[in-house]
Amino acid sequence: EEEKFFTGIIDIVKWLGYEPYKVTHASDHFDKLYEWGKELISRDLAYVCHQKGEELKGHNVHESPWRYRPIQESLQLFEDMKNGKFSEGEATLRMKCIMEDGKLDPVAYRIKYAHHAKTGDKWCIYPTYDYTHCLNDSIENITHSLCTKEFQSRRSSYYWLCNSLDLYCPVQWEYGRLNLQYTVVSKRKIVKLIENNLVRDWDDPRLYTLTALRRRGFPPESINLFCARIGVTMSQTILHPDMLDACVREVLNRIAPRIMVVLEPLKVTINNFPYEKKKELTVLNYPGEESRGYHNIQFDSIIYIEKSDFSQNPTKDFKRLTQNQSCGLKHVALVITLQDIIRVSHINKNYI
Questions:
Q1: What pTM does this model have?
Q2: CATH number for region 179-254
Q3: Where does 17-94 have alpha helices with state H?
Q4: Which residue has the higher pLDDT, 47 or 117?
């Protein structure tokens, strides 16, 4: 992975209010993983294969013609891989096991000539997820390794690899992946959107990544509340974004001070204003919580309401001000009724 991804994970974890007990990387153990790769070969549980990537795709992969090559030959070829004597895709190290989905001999090491953010140019062979996952968990004394259900087919190789090397074996638990309607949450699909310039980056506000939600102003407490509400389940979950929005409103209702603003003002003149002069109103900063302070607003015979709060051609479910429907004013015990509409054509404005 690029460095921005694992630094981004730490950044988001801290934004959510958590402090990692310890931050580790798979690359911290590359030397040990390489030695274990040689040990697998020595136990005749792995071999160097020259099948191309296209031949290894899918679940009906044919048995490799190099599966039964001599142990010493595979050991030498694996060292040659490490020393840069093969091109990318020319050789892989494969484990002699069958995964739960029937896939034969998953790849343990691939050749990739790329600069690594942690190890620089020391390595030109890199371990795969299937090889690294369980071994790193074992090294770090993880008790339960949690992953989404698409990794359930890898559980057998997880246990097989630890047991084959006589290592401590953690427990792998799978849980259902969370999906939201009307959006994309798959990393693979989001990468395509970015590459095709359909979205700008991972924090594009149109996405539902955590960085995008943070950029949109979602408080971290709302994300934690949302996760606590839905819980963890084995079933695949598809939720409507409204549930997340409800959690945001609940948190903001508790932490956001109240102010009033009119974005598209519509001038309203109250003909029978009940007071002799402007009236000062006291409004709580947080509804129902006097101890958290208040502010004052002025109430006069001329007020401004949001343009969308008035309709001359209302729908059946329109509950605000219309020619035949009165409307209450917030913070004052008054109801206004429309008497007249004044149109000022040269500036394209209405007054009521």
A1: 0.75
A2: 1.10.1160.10
A3: 30-42, 53-56, 71-82
A4: 47
